[in-house]
Amino acid sequence: xxxxxxxxxxxxxxxxxxxxxxxxxxxxxxxxxxxxxxxxxxxxxxxxxxxxxxxxxxxxxxxxxxxxxxxxxxxxxxxxxxxxxx
Length: 86
What we know:
Strand order of the largest sheet: 1-2
Oligomer: single chain
């Protein structure tokens, strides 16, 4: 083990590392109440116009989701939209 000098001690409640989550999932009862991208509880969410499965609080979250993952997932949600996500 190697000691590194001149580092302050780590205290209780200190942040050591902060990362964005790799994956998120909402409880079914939260769908349509929280943004699927930022998870904020927001009134007046808008559905994805194509698949109707994802909900967003604004265009910034919708664009972010599209580029990160929704572009590839959206086509597979479309057949389910009529039955599951009205």
